[in-house]
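To the wet lab folks,

You asked to see what we're planning to order before we commit. Fair enough. Below is the target structure as tokens, and below that is the sequence we designed to fit it. If anything looks off to you, flag it before the synthesis order goes out.
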């Protein structure tokens, strides 16, 4: 059996060996398990390669994740050799999943695809014997690479050179590639944003010309692309938004963000520019790789597009944070966000003005404590950092003062569970009903909240008798 079954194609492809291949394999258990699968398949006389993003990442010096495998072994042969299962209708596309040494791998046949009636899925999928045909149907050149069990990279589409020159280019005709699968329109932009690569002009022009095809892509797929770039970092998400805008797709995918363009802001508060430029600047100053945090930064000011007013000729945006919260619901409905993700982003949008509220003295200690004990506090804190630091001036002290104030209040009153236990011993609904006979439900809640605020304002330095007297007085005020 040939040790390298690709040598016969040497005149048609480029190859490059991963340096210190054996050490690289030993250092990564997932990669080690994948190489073991290649060895098992090749012992039965077939050819197998690691393909796609894992190869690209190895050449970039990054840890490979989600290692995929392609082979000319039949699906029946794969199923006889491994315990396999389907992922959805993956078997219709000659793909099965294999669990091996604690990792799950997708194993696909080398294949050709033809036709599309929905601009998302091929009408026909046909297994082929060689990787050159499989590589020719992939989306962009840097994702079209194969890797042998010996660490040799197989490149039929000039992917190695494009990787070295930092270019995003489609495999073959860009028009054809994007018509085959419209999701590739934003995938190409995501990879350019993730790696900081330039987009090949014909590829970029085809994206703009075919941008309406994105209407054929489900919102869930678009959401997934947003999450994938948001988890890389804020600056990469900012670049993705700028790429979308450059090819006139931003208004189609995120019209709420596009609407921020031209929403001028007072230059003394926002020297970075209008609300859109502020949002991009905030993303570029984000320190987080949490996708929810970076999406919260992206959406924190979208309410400015619907709340602009003027005072003495100067644009103002009173209450824009609550308008942002409403628009987050609109975005969440469209993108089908989970309830938890929606709540987290909306919480940030509604409360990102805490610095101003602390400064003007309108925020009670009780509100500070509620926000600090909220499970989404870290998202809010990191968004406030990006919001403050985006304005181009040294503002670390301003941010630190906000965070220290919130931390000190929590330190004084405790985390949520301890606080509620201590507070419920002093004031609760049953106590209010006993002290104010005949009180109605709505008023019970009002007096309870009013009393809790008062107890917090006193730093819990109150006696049960003082609390009882406060409740009675509040009830008397209600009767008047």
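Sequence we intend to order:
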């Amino acid at each position: 059996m040939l040790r390298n079954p690709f040598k016969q194609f040497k005149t048609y492809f480029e190859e490059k060996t991963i340096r210190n291949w054996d050490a690289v394999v030993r250092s990564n258990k997932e990669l080690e398990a994948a190489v073991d699968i290649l060895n098992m398949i090749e012992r039965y006389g077939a050819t197998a390669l690691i393909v796609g993003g894992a190869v690209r990442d190895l050449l970039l010096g990054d840890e490979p994740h989600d290692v995929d495998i392609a082979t000319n072994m039949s699906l029946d042969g794969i199923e006889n050799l491994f315990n396999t299962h389907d992922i959805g209708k993956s078997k219709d596309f000659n793909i099965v999943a294999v669990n091996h040494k604690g990792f799950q791998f997708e194993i696909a046949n080398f294949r050709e695809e033809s036709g599309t009636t929905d601009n998302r899925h091929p009408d026909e999928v046909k297994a082929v014997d060689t990787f050159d045909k499989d590589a020719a149907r992939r989306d962009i050149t840097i994702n079209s690479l194969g890797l042998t069990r010996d660490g040799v990279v197989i490149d039929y589409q000039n992917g190695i050179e494009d990787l070295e020159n930092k270019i995003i280019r489609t495999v073959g005709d860009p028009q054809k590639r994007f018509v085959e699968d419209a999701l590739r329109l934003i995938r190409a932009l995501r990879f350019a944003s993730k790696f900081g690569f330039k987009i090949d002009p014909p590829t970029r022009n085809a994206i703009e010309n075919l941008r309406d095809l994105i209407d054929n892509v489900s919102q869930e797929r678009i959401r997934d692309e947003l999450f994938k770039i948001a988890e890389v970092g804020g600056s990469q998400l900012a670049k993705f938004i700028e790429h979308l805008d450059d090819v006139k797709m931003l208004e189609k995918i995120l019209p709420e963000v596009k609407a921020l363009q031209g929403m001028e802001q007072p230059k003394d508060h926002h020297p970075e520019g209008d609300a859109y430029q502020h949002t991009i600047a905030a993303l570029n100053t984000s320190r987080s790789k949490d996708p929810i945090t970076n999406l919260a930064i992206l959406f924190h000011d979208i309410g400015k597009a619907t709340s602009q007013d003027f005072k003495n000729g100067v644009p103002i945006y009173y209450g824009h944070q609550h308008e942002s919260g409403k628009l987050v619901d609109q975005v969440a409905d469209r993108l089908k966000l989970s309830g938890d993700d929606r709540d987290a982003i909306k919480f940030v949008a509604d409360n990102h003005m805490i610095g101003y509220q602390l400064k003007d003295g309108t925020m009670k200690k009780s509100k500070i404590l509620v926000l600090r004990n909220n499970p989404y506090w870290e998202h809010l804190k990191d968004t406030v950092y990006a919001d403050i630091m985006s304005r181009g001036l040294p503002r670390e002290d301003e941010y630190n003062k906000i965070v220290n104030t919130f931390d000190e209040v929590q330190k004084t009153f405790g985390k949520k569970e301890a606080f509620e236990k201590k507070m419920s011993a002093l004031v609760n609904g049953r106590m209010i009903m006993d002290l104010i006979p005949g009180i109605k439900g709505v008023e019970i809640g009002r007096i309870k909240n009013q009393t809790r605020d008062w107890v917090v304002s006193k730093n819990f330095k109150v006696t049960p008798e003082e609390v009882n007297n406060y409740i009675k007085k509040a009830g008397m005020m209600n009767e008047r």
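Structural context that might help your review: Residues 419-479 form one domain. The longest strand covers residues 103-109.

Thanks,
Computational group
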